[in-house]
Amino acid sequence: MSQTQIDTLDAATSTMTLSLDMGLYPRDVLYAAAYVFLDRAYVLLDRVDSRYVVHLRGKQKLDETALRAMAGEFSNELLAQALRLRVAKANQKIIEDITTLAIAGAGGMPSGDRDPALVDLDQPGEDGFLDDPLGIAEPWEAKKKDAAS
Amino acid sequence: MSAARPTSATVTLHRALYAADAITDAAATFGDFAAFAVHPQGEHYVVEIRDIDREVDGDVVAEFCNFALANTAIRRKSPHA
């Protein structure tokens, strides 16, 4: 019934053996989940028939409650990593596109491809850039000179 | 307490779950504390560990297994890692 089950548990040695269906979790998910536990447990992976077997031994002394809690955390971590892997795969193309754009943007475009000017310098008025109906673009000094004279 | 520890051990690591170079790297990491010999046998790599330094504070064999697993996981270069 249970996809991840406790096969053995020994509080005296702080050890526990879990097993899980190989068809349920990809191997990368198993690695990722096991990796999370490396700082607080000794982890040994094995495979028996169609099940992964995970041997865990706490680096600190663990009673039965703590071991069962660790088994639950391991199951949760498997699920979290499975979801993470699925999201990463679904967004792979987007991530690659964004990264490509970012790298291309940081490097700048080759000079041959660069648009020489955004404004058509032969007919600048057509781009609207040099239209100045309110005279805002007129230099301040020129205005003062006119006023003084 | 450390005197009660064994000075040799044998570990079997499944070949489908542990990379050979990850195991040899882990063996090199702990080379100062024990002698390692790795050879494939059926579905497993058999790691014979001898001359384990009793003075080392910690479980050399278990730490070696953790390192082998960590090295393998890193080498897999999971896309979400």
Protein architecture, described:
The complex is a heterodimer of chains A (149) and B (81). By secondary structure, chain A is an alpha+beta fold. Chain A is built from four helices and four strands. Chain A has helices spanning 27-36, 64-90, 92-107, 140-148, and strands at residues 4-10, 15-21, 41-48, 51-58. Chain A has a four-stranded antiparallel beta sheet with strand order 1-2-4-3, with helices on one face. With 81 residues, chain B is α+β, with helices and mostly antiparallel strands. Chain B has helices at residues 20-29, 60-76, and strands at residues 9-14, 35-41, 44-50. Chain B has a three-stranded antiparallel beta sheet with strand order 1-3-2, with helices on one face. In chain B, strand 2 (35-41) and strand 3 form a beta hairpin. Chain B is globular. The chains are: A alpha+beta (149), B alpha+beta (81). Chain A binds chain B through residues 27-28, 31-32, 34-35, 38, 42-47, 52, 57, 81, 84-85, 87-89, 92, and chain B through 11-14, 16-18, 43, 59, 62-63, 65-66, 69-70, 72-73, 76, 78-81.
Secondary structure topology:
The complex is a heterodimer of chains A (149) and B (81).
Chain A: E1 4-10, E2 15-21, H1 27-36, E3 41-48, E4 51-58, H2 64-90, H3 92-107, H4 140-148
Antiparallel strand pairs in A: 1-2, 2-4, 3-4
Helix pairs in contact in A: 1-2
Chain B: E1 9-14, H1 20-29, E2 35-41, E3 44-50, H2 60-76
Antiparallel strand pairs in B: 1-3, 2-3
The structure class of chain B reads alpha+beta
Strand order of the largest sheet of chain A: 1-2-4-3
Flag low-confidence runs of chain A. none
In whole angstroms, the N-to-C terminal distance of chain B is 39 Å
Task: Tell me which protein chains meet in the greatest interface and how many residues each side has.
Answer: A-B, 22 and 22 residues
Biggest pleated sheet of chain A = 4 strands, antiparallel
Tell me the β content of chain A. 15-25%
- Low-confidence runs of chain B: none
| Rg result of chain A | 33 Å
- N- and C-termini, Cα separation of chain A: 98 Å
Mean pLDDT metric of chain A: 85
Give helix % range of chain B. 25-40%
- How many individual β-strands of chain B? 3
